[in-house]
């Protein structure tokens, strides 16, 4: 048997044409961290990490542009508007550039810089984009490149450092027939704009050794902002200081009347006499962290790293309007938890060795198409909030685990209990070197049928706790099953139940732990070849599927335990790999060698698996690959998926990453209790539709027959869960003709029937 990752291999490839995913995906990126702003065609564009906010000054409408529309979704470092092409140009930290056509909403991705082998990855960052007619000047950490926007073609690249070396160019502008470029450490360079051989570094003359960070034209004069935050003017071959600022200038935007300067805590508009015309200090955020600002037609638009995009008026500068799209607090997500209609995000974190990362962050809750962000201060200032457990009996009641300060309880977004004081019954780990150090590390929870809340604690003898509805805590000593637990740097991962109410949770170095709440008995599955056959005792994720089989995700691969209850009676239980045959008939192991960060079971008992090479959907038994989403074939902003969860009613699949949340409109829904709400969609099936027809609202095991109007059978399937899909073909062969097709549904016990119709138009 070969332990290789063959069937699910992937290749990252960059293509020029980007795909629009709006029909099947939804972007849920955060827009609270705005880094830069530009304008064009009566619209304001703001870069928010890896997506764009578009504000129409005529209609006052705000829209977003993200990987759902085809953007690269990497970290944006520069944007510019090309008026003659009606396009927004977006530059990224990794050297990629997107050209987004405003009219057609099409994206063209420029890959040339990324593919340059002679340039190190660290030098490919796009620093600034400067547009003159059809010509785009791109400043980078290696020099300057030129791109023809109309023809979508790269031109020359200028290495302007000493002897043609690569140097970091921060900004560029064209003035009075010359190109001026500023480098971080080599001063200011100048070249004649129409010189025939600008690729010759001798054409670029160093005209000043002064180190600046911005260069621009204002009031028909050439200015710069120095590294020491002085406003300097180029006069008689020298840069002469005009004004000195005491705070760091974070951005500069000139227009016909004013020079708009932003600082972390204020925005200043300077007139052509270089005097302050307006100063804005009443800014959001405690404290504010302004990244950029721009003035257009009496309106000032302000971007902040924490609070997003805002607008104020020249005549009433202290009255700000919030233009930030409703969105989660952050893109850097640690955990997503979903129940019907509800999505919760947490942003705390711990390392792979289960050491807490000290984040002071709030949490986000999505319900009824609206994000409610609960700030850190409203959560008892509880740090390192890592996971949410939603009460199935009351989705507005949640517990949120802190991997440093215990446990908090919310109801209707209000903190009702905080179990994070020295007087609560939850024990802290003990550190002999620091006896006063207190760290209560809670991770993973579960509500049982009696509404008891179960959760795990790290580095204490009683590693499993139960909180009753009356508020009493009961701890269970794990010393016998895992000796020395309180002395290690270990931790516990997912906590899941089986159909008998037994609990299972993963550990960093002890495999899988099982607990029977009725007998108070622990069990354990640990060890590699010759023992439990786990590829690693570092268990990152667990999922109990609809057949009561335990799927185990480890640091080095995947296993399944059939009949997990054996752990209480059989000391020789072994986990099983999923083995399939590849196209050549060679036996392969599913997910061999991969770190499995999350496993989620959908309504049809298929498994969604989060890895560092994308997200996989495999069939109920793991023998068939159904989907493999990566950054190259989906709007995922990265291939590393930290968590996956599914809305059992809608089938929506949520993918949490360190670069944002995206959701896929899946079709597998949970089994219904009756056939009353059966539906088929899309309906009618129109001529240009090439996808699948979904029939949901089904009971598990229901028989579904599809016939033409004359009663001829064209398709039949038994529902594995709450839905099936039909490819509009007669048993997978030829496409059926236009007409009305009857869907005849019978429950497994034949006590219920349902008839619906599908119209097919060819």
From TrEMBL:
Pfam families xref list: PorZ_N_b_propeller, Reg_prop
Keyword Signal: yes
Record key words, sorted: Signal
Domain of life: Bacteria
InterPro entries: PorZ_N, Quinoprotein_ADH-like_sf, Reg_prop, Secre_tail, WD40/YVTN_repeat-like_dom_sf
Name the record gives this protein: PorZ N-terminal beta-propeller domain-containing protein
Domain PorZ N-terminal beta-propeller: 44-205
